[in-house]
Amino acid sequence: MASSSISAAGQPGRIRILNQPSSNPSGPVIYWMFRDQRVKDNWALIHSIEQANKRNVPLAIAFNLFDQFLGAKARQLGFMLRGLKQLHKKIQEDFDIPFFLFQGEAVDTIPKFLKECGASLLVMDFSPLREVRSWKDTICEKVSDSVSIHEVDAHNVVPVWVASNKLEYSAKTLRSKINKLLPEYLIDFPTLGPVKKKWDKPTCVVDWENLIAQVVRKGAEVPELEWCIPGEVAAMEVLMGLEKGFLTRRLRNYNTERNNPMKPKSLSGLSPYLHFGQISAQRCALEACKVRTVSPQSVDAFLEELIVRRELADNFCYYQPHYDSIQGAWEWARKTLMDHVSDKREHLYTKEQLEKAQTADHLWNASQMELVHHGKMHGFMRMYWAKKILEWTSGPVEALAISIYLNDKYHIDGRDPNGYVGCMWSICGVHDQGWKERPVFGKIRYMNYAGCKRKFDVDGYTAYIKRLVGETKKRKAEILLTNKAKELCP
Questions:
Q1: Which of 192, 220, 305, 403 could be bridged to 423 by S-S, CB 3.0 to 4.6 A?
Q2: pTM, whole model, 2 decimals?
Q3: Which residue intervals of 143-196 are DSSP H helices?
Q4: NCBIfam families this protein is in (predicted)?
Q5: 194 φ, ψ to 5°?
Q6: Is there a contact between 461 and 366 (Cβ–Cβ < 8 Å)?
Q7: CB–CB of 35/160 below 8 Å?
């Protein structure tokens, strides 16, 4: 439920009150940050400061680091921690707000911290994923009845529970609802003010370098990426940079070239930052609206992907508990897939063969190598990639499990509603319609090599990926040699 008396700068719909005690204790406000890892343009932080000042109490930020959450490796955790290191410095230097980093299970660390500091209010980010929702429910049960608990959707432009109160069938059914609410929610952010009462309890010292080194070493199976620089400053550079910024230099071609895997620079490049909350989707939308006259079709296409499609994914994961299972598909899709589960496949590959890109399809192999070594597969190729997994495995259950496993392990923006819905769209027809019936796929939309060849230069793409992978391997070898030399030299 939301309350008009609770406001994040006049946007009460963003906040849900999960616990409201009758008394008003005077302890500090704690903001448990997890999905929206930024200082700027963060409604949850704005609300936390607002509430701390209203109650005349201090504020602290808490973050809980899980051990390889949903299979995250060095690639994802290194990126996240390097961004948090910058956030820690900024929030302390600019706002004098302490930052606490905990390791272990949030259902233990967060309630314990609330009790130790005598908190009066817990503010938490929103996520539609079942693991996070389970933690939230357990924490709500564990904390004292005297602690208020507020949940803030700082990730979506229109909060998921405001945009719709049910599972939407497609982008078409959600689009009009979101567009109707944009005048109310797509507004500029207030200036972040100081917390009036300072924290007077012990603070947390984080050995970032040692922590990052440990995490990177432990998850070394999927190494970090060089091309993607973490943090809020880097995110704004990708959006607005004078040399290579998306809105300043690359926007014009977005509408016509975004579905061409040979034109990766036409894409925004923002998904890693949006996934880790290092930039606000609302900020991206606001800045895009300012330049709409320059390229209206590209801006409209970008806003469709940024707002409608992203929020459709959150809607699906929030209202469909089986968001990563064939049980989450519509009845027509489940039926057609099971009707064709015993159809003969031209090829059958194991998970290990697929992971190592050992198939007879050189285009698919290139997309898998792009994923493994570059950490980001082109959106068009993601669809082809997942559909071929359906074609080459025992059935939709195995295909979905393998596609999600590979997506979450290697994509820098894996373990995300967009990723789950992308796999579900490709394999289970979610947010799509039935098409002409054919073997294996049934009525699920079909994609093949010949269709890709008609759309873009397939040989050019495979050659480009071969060069990309070669350069990545070469740089990795050079780094290993340099590190070895450092170890040998006293």
A1: 403
A2: 0.95
A3: 160-163, 171-185
A4: phr2 (TIGR00591)
A5: -80, 160
A6: yes
A7: no
Tokens of 113: 């911290």
For residue 363, give the nearest of 378, 345, 346, 344 by alpha carbon. Answer: 378
**What is the spatial distance between Cα 461 and Cα 366, in angstroms, rounded to a whole number?**
8
Q: Which neighbouring-strand residues pair with 124?
A: 32, 151
The answer to whether 149 and 140 have CB atoms below 8 angstroms apart is yes
Q: Where are the alpha helices (DSSP H) in 24-129?
A: 43-55, 74-95, 106-117
For 82, the token pair is 């390097």
CB of 87 closer than 8 Å to CB of 37: yes
pLDDT digits 0-9 by tens, 80-129? 999 999 999 999 999 999 999 999 999 999 999 999 999 999 999 999 99
Beta 29-32 vs 121-125: how paired, if at all? parallel
List the structure tokens of 386: 């997942």
Angle, CA 427 vertex, CA 320 and CA 347 arms, to 5°: 150
The amino acid present at 387, given as its one-letter code, is K
| pLDDT value, residue 481 | 75
Q: What is the model's pLDDT at position 71?
A: 78
The helix-helix angle for 362-369 and 379-391 (nearest 10°) equals: 120
Query: 442 is written with which tokens?
Result: 């049934």
Going by their DSSP bridges, the two strands 121-125 and 148-152 should be labelled as: parallel
Beta bridge partners of 176: none
Instruction: Specify the DSSP class assigned to residue 183.
Output: H
pLDDT digits over 411-444, tens only? 999 999 999 999 999 999 999 999 999 999 999 9
Distance CA 395, CA 234 (A): 42
Give residue 77's Cα distance to chain centre: 13
Number of CB atoms found within 10 A of residue 339's CB: 12
CA angle, residues 458, 460, 466, in degrees to nearest 5: 105
pLDDT in tens, 6-27: 666 668 899 999 998 877 778 9
What residues have CB less than 8 Å from 215, skipping those under 6 apart? 74, 77, 78, 81
Listed residue (41, 56, 58, 48) closest to 15, CA to CA: 48
Amino acid at 413: D
Question: How many Cβ atoms are within 10 Å of 480's Cβ, its own excluded?
Answer: 10
Between CA 91 and CA 88 the distance in angstroms is 5
Cβ atoms of 59 and 49 closer than 8 Å: yes
3-state secondary structure of 374: helix
At 25 the pLDDT is 75
Supply 287's token pair: 């800045």
Beta-bridged to residue 148, according to DSSP, are 121
Domain ranges of the chain: 326-472
Report the CATH fold assignment for 326-472.
DNA Cyclobutane Dipyrimidine Photolyase, subunit A; domain 3 (1.10.579)
